Each structure stands twice: as structure tokens, then as C-alpha cells.
Amino acid sequence: MRVEKINKEACVIITKREQAKELYSEIDKSLKIIRKEGTLVTRILEDTKHPEGKVKYIINGMNESKVKSILSKTLQESIEKRTVLA
What SS3 class is residue 57? Predict the structure, then answer.
């Protein structure tokens, strides 16, 4: 996959491929919130046969602290839902 323009302040989230499968719904919720704000998110799957292959999400034009804040808020909401259901 080719990425045309990446802002030098772009935040990159890198997860191991197996973790990406487990966390997909939570990460996807966060990325939807980020995309709603009009931010470009590019998903790059590293082409490797190694089981520890990486998945990269490049978030263009949003600083790392804002992305971390959105991710942690989404994950916290998910944890709270699971706690209530348990």
C-alpha cells in the first residue's frame, strides 16, 4: 500500500497482528471517532509470514496524546460494559 502524504506530526499505532485481531473492535471504534473528525487513517498490514507481523495505523494530522486519549476512553468504556455484563 502506498501512502501519499503523511503529516510530520502523524501518530502511528503499531500492534502485533495477533493483538490486532483481539483488539480489532476496540481499535475500530476509536478509529471511527478519529475519522469522524475528518482525519485520514491509513491501515498498513506488514507483508510478512512471521506470526509477529505488525499492523500499522497511521493517523495523519492528529497528535499522539489526543489519539491516546481517544483510545484509552474507548477501551475504558469497553471494560466498563464487560464488567456490567459479568
Answer: strand
